[in-house]
Amino acid sequence: MVLAALALAAPLVAACTTEPHQPDDGPAADLAQYYEQDLEFGPCADLGQSPAEAEFLQADAFECTYLDVPMDYDDPDGRQMQVAVLRVPAQGDPGQRIGSLVTNPGGPGGSGAFIAAVASIGLAESPLLQRFDLVGFDPRGVGASVPSIQCFTDAERDAGLAKTTLLGTSGAWTSDDTQDFVDRCAEGSGGEDVLSSVGTRDAARDMDVLRAALGDDRLSFLGQSYGTRLGAVYAEQFPGNVRAMVLDGAIDPRQGAGERRIELHAGFQRSFEELAQYCAQSADCPLGTDPGQATQVFQELVQPLVDEPVPAGGGRSADFYHVTGGVGSGLYAEELWDEVIAGIAQLADEGRADRLMVLNDNLNGRAPDGSWSNFLDANYAINCMDDERRTPEAEAELRARIAEVNPFLDSGEEFDGTTRNACEQWPAEPTLDAPYAQDVEGLADTLVISTTGDPATPYQSGVNLAEDLGSSLLTVEGERHTAALEAISPCVNGVVADYLIDLSLPADGARCER
């Protein structure tokens, strides 16, 4: 996933070489009210999920609106949802404007609107922002979209009650817990019909409504991490409506949730071992100077925190979940390794976790003022609508397998079949079973970017997605999750700009350094 702490970095004109195009079959008559809506853009401050975000979004460069979409596409005259949209208008010659570049930064649950605003600062001189309006949106249920998924209060999150993550290795849930999750989310979000309406297939349909409302004949899209799933599902549903699509840090469309979690945790173990190698070059490395012992050293530090949290500043305490979350957050990008090491040293030397708590907060959407975004709640709900459910026995088996492939995150707890799948009592069945986006016909040339040292979406996942969509593949050498639209690699940015602007794809076997 790509989060605020790891921020990235939008009508065709004569300069584009594509032929005139009619969208796939056109919208059904009963959806015309959505596809033909006029968007009125205005100030953006109301889209901020914290005072700091609201202040940042007051800048004149940003303009915002809400897109109306049906909650249920089979009942377009029923209840509606509003998708928050932010636009940064193209900065170049109006005659050279290509259209909108729609982006999604990942999660699921990340605010695409806010991250697009952040990304635009680094793109000020980029040819992309000269030729495209940069558009970010909060998918249904996320961020400033209405209704948004709300399961826990800020106080409950601070108290550690919001452990609904589907990726964790600590904690267990009873049947009563999983029903409580549903009840909390339904009450806070506006009903069980909201919880049943936030899957990726519906979000992809919203993206096609957005394309039309923006006035774009075809979609130009850049998705990262979860955004690659959203993009692939859009390509599956609307292949003829794609002008260009960059998918960076790919989720493997062939894998179910269980297999994907195992691959993810194996990737994080590999990245932790790379960090340990880097740390061991210093005599005062808190993991020791023998990288082969780093996992054991780390476990001795963190397993006691399951039962005995440590101070973490501001009157808060950090347990195993917070501390390992902070370390995991820092593994998303090599540039954060020094801060992870400093945080582990603080834990070892002072018995405190202030620094690792900050990293964990950044990962999970807690602002410095103590307010939380709805990232964790939306992440939970969207995954419940996308992924298969497991029996308690299968959940325990999966947890045991994860502990094998990712021992640095092993909490030491035993899962004997009593822990439940967090989504087992969700009010609707999942709508996105793997494999998806297979045998897609009529899709324009697309570009997949995969990084060799990606901890969250392993390199092979990008290879598989490129094969399935018939995409060109750009390999990036480096230790990080996602690579596009960031200052770290002019090579990657050049390839992306050439493709999105001129539809020029890299040569077979193309590679970039980090």
List the helices and strands and how they pair.
Layout lengths: L31 H4 L15 H6 L6 E8 L9 E9 L10 E6 L7 H11 L4 H5 E7 L15 H5 L16 H15 L2 H4 L4 H14 L5 E6 L1 H12 L4 E7 L8 H23 L14 H9 L7 E2 L5 E2 L1 H11 L6 H14 L3 H11 L10 H12 L5 H14 L41 E5 L7 H11 L2 E6 L12 H13 L8 E3 L1
Parallel strand pairs: 3-4, 3-5, 5-6, 6-9, 9-10, 10-11
Antiparallel strand pairs: 1-2, 2-4, 7-8
Low-confidence stretches: 1-22
Distance between the termini: 18 Å
Output the radius of gyration. 22 Å
Query: Which structural class is indicated by helix and strand composition?
Result: alpha/beta
Largest β-sheet summary: 9 strands, mixed
Helix content: 25-40%
Q: Strand content of the residues, in percent? A: 5-15%
Strand order of the largest sheet: 1-2-4-3-5-6-9-10-11
Rounded mean pLDDT score = 91
Number of separate strands: 11
Note the quaternary state here: single chain
Shape: globular
The SSE order reads: HHEEEHHEHHHHEHEHHEEHHHHHEHEHE
